[in-house]
Design a protein that fits this description.
It is globular, with a radius of gyration of 16 Å. It contains five helices and four strands; from the N terminus they run ββαβαβααα. It is mostly helical. It has one domain: Ribonuclease H-like superfamily/Ribonuclease H (Nucleotidyltransferase, domain 5, 2-Layer Sandwich), CATH 3.30.420. Strand 1 and strand 2 form a beta hairpin. Helix 1 packs parallel to helix 2 and helix 4 runs antiparallel to helix 5 (about 135-140).
């Protein structure tokens, strides 16, 4: 298949540090993919030394099935759904998505999921480590 296609990724952001962890992109975000991202972020939380999460704020997308919430619950994390029609309930996430779109994704064409992952991960590292704008270009090369 050629032409434009939508790619999806998840990101997780501890509110204390606001350092985003971005999942690999997919063209088909189904329940199995979302569950795998839940398992991956739990390993990331353990490895990164981030304070134990107590809550996960998430939207009401149908891909977040009970199994996703169950994985979080098994680690003592309560998944909290954002209220219906309350865009400010997830303001940090909305702001991060807007920033990555404006400052990064709107300036590139992606030729593969690996290419998209490289750019998104590089931008996340840029944001997470407070690098200067000049260093972002060097990170991409």
């Amino acid at each position: 298949m050629t032409g434009k296609r939508d790619a999806y990724w998840l990101f997780f952001m501890p509110l204390g540090s606001r350092k985003a962890r971005v999942s690999p992109a997919t063209l088909h975000p189904d329940e199995a993919w979302v569950k795998q991202q839940a398992r991956d972020v739990l390993m990331w939380l353990e490895d990164s030394g981030v304070q134990q999460a107590m809550h996960l704020i998430r939207n009401r997308d149908a891909k977040f099935a009970r199994s996703f919430d169950g994985i979080m619950k098994s680690e003592g994390i309560k998944a909290v759904k954002t209220p219906v029609m309350a865009p400010d309930a997830n303001a940090f996430a909305k702001a991060w998505v807007g920033t990555i779109k404006r400052e990064c994704l709107n300036h590139f064409a992606y030729f593969s999921l690996n290419h998209l992952d490289h750019i998104v991960q590089t931008y996340a590292n840029f944001c997470n480590h407070g690098l200067s704008i000049g260093s972002f270009g060097r990170l991409l090369s």
